Amino acid sequence: MKKKRTKISNRKLPILKVLGIGILGLITLFLLFAASVNLGLWGKIPSKKELSNFQYQIASEVFTADSVLIGKYYLYDRQPVAFEEFPKHLEQALISIEDERFYDHSGIDFKSLIRVAFKTILLNDDSSGGGSTITQQLAKNLYPRKERNKTNIVVDKIKEMIIAKRLENIFSKEEILTNYLNTVSFGDNTFGIESAALKFYNSRTKDISAAQAATLVGMLKATYGYNPRLFPERSLSRRNLVLRAMYSNNYISEEQVNQYTQEELELDYREFDYNAGIAPYFREEVRKEMLRWIADQNKNGTDYNIYTSGLKIYTSLNFRMQKLAEEVMVEHMTKLQNDFEKSYGKNAPWIKDKKLMQKIARRTSSYKKLQKANLSHEQIIDSLSKDNRKINLIDWQGDKEVTGSTMDSIQHYTKFLNTGSLTIDPTNGDVLVWIGGINFKQYKYDHISQSKRQVGSTFKPIVYTAALEQSVAPCTYFSAEEIQYDNLKGWSPGNSGDKDEAYLNYSMEEGLSNSVNTIAVKVLEKAGINNVLRMAKDMGIDEKLPSEASIALGTGEIKILDLAKAYTSYANNGKHIKPNLIKRITDNKDSVLVDFKSEFSSEPAFSKETGQIMIEMMKSTVNSGTASRLRSIYGLKNDMAGKTGTTQNNKDAWFVALTPSLVHLTWVGLDQHEIGFSNTSIGQGANAALPLFGLWMKELNKIKDFDKYTKKSFPKPSASVIDALNCDPIKRDGFFKRLFKNPNKKKTKKFNG
After folding, report:
1. Domains 78-261 and 418-738 share a fold
2. Rounded to an integer, what distance in angstroms lies between the CA atom of residue 565 and that of residue 556?
3. Could you give the count of Cα atoms lying within 13 Å of 24 in the half-sphere of its Cβ?
4. Which of 259, 374, 414, 503 is most open to solvent, judged by the fewest CB atoms within 10 Å of its CB?
């Protein structure tokens, strides 16, 4: 028996020898393979110098004046934060679930590596996972894998090991954790813990709780499958697993585990979406201004990029004011849209006027695409009318999916009233509120900075201002009688009042406050067209305006932004100020790159006395004129001046409000110029546009923080101004003049202005 055992043992020796040689060979081959990877034969590996100089692509952030983050510009949504801003429980959660021996290894956890190697390569088990250290994962974040076949997995693993060793030689453990948490993906193009904390909890990293940290760390295993917004139950289960791992590693007590696992997810989700969120039109305008600034800076050798440089843009916008204005806009426009559609009923032009709808269809990309395919107009319209499919229609009641054609969609969106609303602090030019339209996703066109519309009676104050500067006394009386101007092709501007107006003579104050068209034209005649155009330019309106008598009624097309600039002149003794969107730009470490301050015009457009007279006249508009519903309906007691405006055929409704520290403009109308309001009652500025200011100001009055805007009063006018305005508002023609005047027959004359 003894001899047999010896024989067997002797047989084993060659087998063990062969096996040993085989293992040694495999190790040698692996080492040679690893060496070839290190030499770059399987792709370049970054040097220590490259690794020490790597830079994040950092999102730029947009803040309101009251320091609320309202938007980002990015290729990758990432905001790096320092290690000191990581709460301890965040670090503990990460290490517990991802790399328990993080502080003990030098970049590679060989125990985990051997497990992964055997399971993946020898056992063909792709689900092994869990072998990478945090340092290796950082390497993968910095240099993502490109291919996913088995050979490349081995190559990638070796590359990550080499990079990990180099990273450990360059950076401290704290720096590695910092770099990892600033680069790791949380899905949905969100990178880094700061962006994730802001997105899911509307919180900075330093403020997240232990349970919140565990939730976010838990996502790293599968950013989609453990997304707490999409799969709350899965996310909750994963979070609790992370918490138990923290307990197993003695980071938290059993009592804390029990407490944290009982907590709900309680997300405060914020998507920093280009199309959504607060002030989207404003953010887009800021983006355009930033691109212009960056282009100028880069000419001088800088290398700024709005999407990757991590710039911080501090704007003039007031978050609470903007939020209130948007809420008011939704409230008013919902009601107005309903009234608008009811007023037309079944005879609405978007229903009955097929030619108009085809005309509008011509402007669409769908039409132009078919046109390029050489289809006739009739064929295109036929195609657009029959391409039924599931379409998503947006209205004030919410989104709805219906079956319809492209023409159905065009018809739906044609009927919607739109708006532009802007508020400026005239003392410093700060833009406080900016609403460029009703829905940025659907209507990208900004009605503040892009749209030029006829401004109606909101131009009349400029006419009256020019007249005052031409020494026309405020108590000059003008007849409301309609006149036909022979040298203007028989043009005969009229009023909306009754025939009795032919016998009435208005002071300038009364004529302006009641927006009497016939008087505005006569005031223009006294002032002179050229003087009015010059006044408009001096007040900050750069648009070329028509040199025509109809300018008195606001036929000139002006941007809201430019008209607002002109009205700031009344609050600044004749000097206008340029609206300012951006206050300050800093780098990602908050070092100031530039401060912006808006400047007043060098010379006043009119005298201090003229300015005081105009404010008093526009106060009358609010107190007893066309804007008096601010007092009677909205109960506003603020010191205010203002002017309503309505254009021909009720195409545009306007309101301008002026307080000592606010200039507010609102326009309401349709993007399609062919369609207006069905009647003046619903479409006049006092009904369609004024409520957006009235409702908003009513809310501001409730908030003490806004007292500096709402409680302020205009300076008391001088004695000479009070005296100049001291006259009866209306004088009626005497008996004999009335006797010989025929109100049904228009007076004819030549316009001489």
Report:
1. no
2. 16
3. 6
4. 374
Amino acid at 31: L
The two most distant CA atoms of the chain are separated, in Å, by 153
Q: What is the pLDDT of residues 284-307, one digit of tens each?
A: 999 999 999 999 999 998 999 999
In 3-state terms, what secondary structure has residue 713? Answer: coil
Q: Is 3.10.20.30 the CATH classification of the domain at 418-738?
A: no
Strands 557-559 and 69-73: unpaired
pTM of the model: 0.85
At 12-34, the pLDDT tens digits run 557 666 666 666 666 666 555 55
Q: Report the alpha-carbon distance of residue 114 to residue 9 in Å, rounded.
A: 30
Show the tokens assigned to 405.
């054609």
* Separation of CA 392 from chain center: 22
Which tokens sit at 348? 């609405």
CATH 1.10.3810.10 applies to domain 78-261 = yes
| CB burial readout 291-308, b (16+ within 10 A) else e | eebbeeeeeeeeebbbbb
Residue with tokens 């109308």: 669
Residue appearing with tokens 């517990």: 96
Q: Domain map of the chain by residue range?
A: 78-261, 418-738
Two structure tokens written together for 571: 């609050």
Question: Strands 60-63 and 312-315, how do they pair?
Answer: parallel
pLDDT at residue number 126:
43
pLDDT for 197-230, tens place per residue? 999 999 999 999 999 999 999 999 999 999 999 9
Q: What value, to the nearest 5°, has the Cα angle with vertex 322 and ends 633 and 636? A: 20
